[in-house]
Amino acid sequence: MASSATATSTAAIAAPLGNYAHLLPPSWKRVITDWLDEDTPSFDYGGFVVGEGQEEATLWGKSEGVLAGVPFVDEIFAQLGCTVEWYLKEGDAVTPTKDTPKIKVATVRGPARCLLLGERVALNTMARSRRVLLAARNHGWQGIIAGTRKTTPGFRLVEKYGMLVGGVDPHRYDLSSMVMLKDNHVWSKGSITEAVLAAKSVAGFSIRIHVECQSLAEAREAIAAGADIVMLDNFTPQGIAEAAKALKEDWERQTGASAEAGAGSRGEGQASAAKRCLVEVSGGLTEENMAESLCPDVDILSTSAIHQGSVPIVDFSLKITPRHRSA
């Protein structure tokens, strides 16, 4: 996986504080086997043509981005009896220019048919993007850019991993990671307050409660009920700015009043309402239209444009080194 950038970008992405590969669960290598089985379910006709002579292939990066997905590519080729020598490390920039239109990223060595068995599977794990994050930073906004759960079935681990390497927050990983109460939950339960109270009764202290809101009034109800995050869903840019500012002012008034009253005199409901609730914005946000939705009172901008087809993929190719053979 890779994360696309732009040649004119001035945004700085924080360096990793550890090895991203150490995030992967013990079961992740089994997924690679499934990918290979899916791509060659029966006869390998191309493999019959090329045979098992030892070959060398170069992985070329042909559009700007950052390298992400080294563990997946290594394992794909390891399962096929090949080796990979990397010239860039995870998170390094891939920066082709007019004079150097492709960058040598790695060399893969092994039997010809095995190189080709792994080629497309490996390349398909590497073509993702982080352009949305860079666009936000270049607009001067320093909040959290987050992905969504709208990932490709069976490919979530790779897509969420790519978000992390690209500097993007992966948001919740699955339904068990955080309680997100959307309109269907609220309508089914009867009200935001009832839905939040039901969620809190089973979520425990370690799981955050996240509520999708269609109006400022709904956001205020969610916060009063004890939500940790409110999502302003499909608001207009002006509506985002007004609602986010109003919620921040609510919090400032409540904490000011609490400070005057003293910690010992507050009721439980007052303490819950006075806490800082994160404000998230979502709904149709892309690299092109996001600027007007960025404001200092918004904490999180979430969008599936990070990992779905609306963002250009990063161009990689794997080419076997030609040999001069006698006729």
From TrEMBL:
GO terms for biological process: NAD+ biosynthetic process; quinolinate catabolic process. SUPFAM superfamilies: Nicotinate/Quinolinate PRTase C-terminal domain-like, Nicotinate/Quinolinate PRTase N-terminal domain-like. The keyword Secreted does not apply. Pathway: Cofactor biosynthesis; NAD(+) biosynthesis; nicotinate D-ribonucleotide from quinolinate: step 1/1. It catalyses: nicotinate beta-D-ribonucleotide + CO2 + diphosphate = quinolinate + 5-phospho-alpha-D-ribose 1-diphosphate + 2 H(+). InterPro entries: Aldolase_TIM, NadC, NadC/ModD, Nicotinate_pribotase-like_C, Quinolinate_PRibosylTase_N_sf, Quinolinate_PRibosylTrfase_C. CDD domains: QPRTase (cd01572). Keywords: Glycosyltransferase, Pyridine nucleotide biosynthesis, Transferase. Residues 129-319 form the Quinolinate phosphoribosyl transferase C-terminal domain. Its EC number is 2.4.2.19. One of its GO terms (molecular function) is nicotinate-nucleotide diphosphorylase (carboxylating) activity. It is an enzyme of class 2 (transferase). GO terms for cellular component: cytoplasm. Belongs to the NadC/ModD family. Hexamer formed by 3 homodimers. Involved in the catabolism of quinolinic acid (QA). This is Nicotinate-nucleotide pyrophosphorylase [carboxylating]. It comes from Rhodotorula mucilaginosa (Yeast).
